[in-house]
Amino acid sequence: MENLNQILIDGVEATNNNDFDRAEEIFREALKNYPDNHIVLYNLGIVMLKTEKFSDAAEIFEEALKFKNTDPDIWTDAGFAYQEMGNTEKALSCYEKALETAEDKSVILNNIGTVYFSQENYKEAKKYFSQALRENREYTQARQNLALTNTFLDVIS
User: Fold this and answer.
1) Is the pTM of this model over 0.90?
2) SS3 for 105-120, per residue?
3) Residues 6+ apart with CB under 8 A from 73
4) If we measure between CA atoms, which residue out of 71, 6, 75, 70 comes closest to residue 34?
5) Which end of the chain, N or C, is less surrounded by CB atoms within 10 Å?
6) In a 10 Å sphere around its CB, with 0-12 CB exposed, 13-18 middle and 19+ buried, how is residue 93 labelled?
């Protein structure tokens, strides 16, 4: 049996090289020997996100959370999968759980802002984009999202 660290390295390398079929194969094979390993599950979930299999990704992240429910990255990516599926309530719930344990909350706050923006709740979106920038002043995506939101608020006021 191959060492788990080497399996993870190979799977992540395949993912980084956009060889998603190979990455999925590596992680699914690893799950046969390590079915309760949240890191293997998380990486498989990432492959599902990158291939836009959002329902599969959400299911895999939920499985990973059974073994490590304090990992903010798993909660964040589960939230993103649900958001892409249009389940904004579940997405927000996942993002809120991620906020509980994340050290850097800027990405999560930005993601929450995008949920509200997609619902055309621009005031709430602005609040979260602003919070993301307070967390990380260099966060370009949050800055762009805030500028766009301010434009929409100017138009509707």
Assistant:
1) yes
2) CHHHHHHHHHHHHHCC
3) 42, 98
4) 6
5) C
6) middle
- DSSP line for 41-82: HHHHHHHHHHTT-HHHHHHHHHHHHHH-TT-HHHHHHHHHHH
Q: Which residues contact 89 (CB under 8 A, 6 or more apart)?
A: none
- The enclosing H or E element of 19 equals none
How much helix, strand and coil, in percent to the nearest 5, is found in the chain? Answer: 80, 0, 20
Distance CA 156, CA 37 (A): 49
Distances 117 to 45, 48, 63, 77 between C-alpha atoms, Å? 25, 25, 29, 18
Q: Residue 29 half-sphere exposure, CB side, CA atoms within 13 Å?
A: 15
